[in-house]
């Protein structure tokens, strides 16, 4: 009796299909883990409410831009400074400035500060800011009313950190 070679059998096909789908599932689980751990995915709490408020916010931003008020942010080591001035270059009369530092991806390092007034149009704070990209939202108020609301993307490496 001569034994003949068996060739590609049904069990070989089962192993090939199982190996293929095991790899596909492992890759999907890995990608899902990294996606969910690196970004919250949250842009707005309620999209319907945000859409209803959009026109009012857009009009307010146009009015702020037309006012000529501008802010300048600087981050040096632990010193954060925000200077705000009118369109003619004079310091703006502002009572309070708050800054919200947000990472473009992830929210575990985000923080916000209320700066102390050190002079007319000049506000400062001492806080460690990690090196890298940040989105900084600045809100300036006088008598409780928002005078300037802006957001800037910065790289703290550009400030010499």
Automatic annotation (TrEMBL):
Superkingdom of the source species: Bacteria
Q: Which UniProt keywords apply?
A: Membrane, Transmembrane, Transmembrane helix
Annotated TM spans: 12-35
Pfam entry (one): FixH
Q: Which InterPro entries match?
A: FixH (IPR008620), FixH_proteobacterial (IPR018037)
This chain belongs to which protein, by name?
A: FixH family protein
Q: Which organism does this sequence originate in? A: Rhizobium bangladeshense
């Amino acid at each position: 009796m001569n034994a003949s070679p068996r060739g590609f059998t049904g069990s070989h096909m089962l192993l090939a299909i199982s190996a293929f789908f095991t790899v596909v599932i492992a890759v999907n689980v890995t990608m899902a883990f990294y996606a969910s751990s690196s970004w919250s995915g949250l842009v707005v709490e309620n999209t319907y409410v945000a859409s209803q408020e959009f026109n009012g916010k857009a009009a307010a931003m146009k009015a702020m831009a037309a006012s000529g008020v501008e802010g300048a942010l600087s981050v040096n080591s632990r010193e954060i400074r925000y200077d705000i001035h009118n369109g003619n270059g004079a310091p703006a009369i502002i009572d309070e400035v708050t800054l919200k530092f947000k990472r473009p991806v992830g929210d575990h390092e985000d923080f916000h500060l209320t700066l102390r007034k050190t002079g007319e149009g000049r506000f400062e704070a001492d806080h460690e800011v990690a090196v890298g990209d940040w989105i900084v939202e600045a809100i300036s108020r006088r008598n409780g009313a928002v005078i300037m609301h802006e957001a800037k993307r910065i790289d703290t490496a550009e400030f010499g950190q």
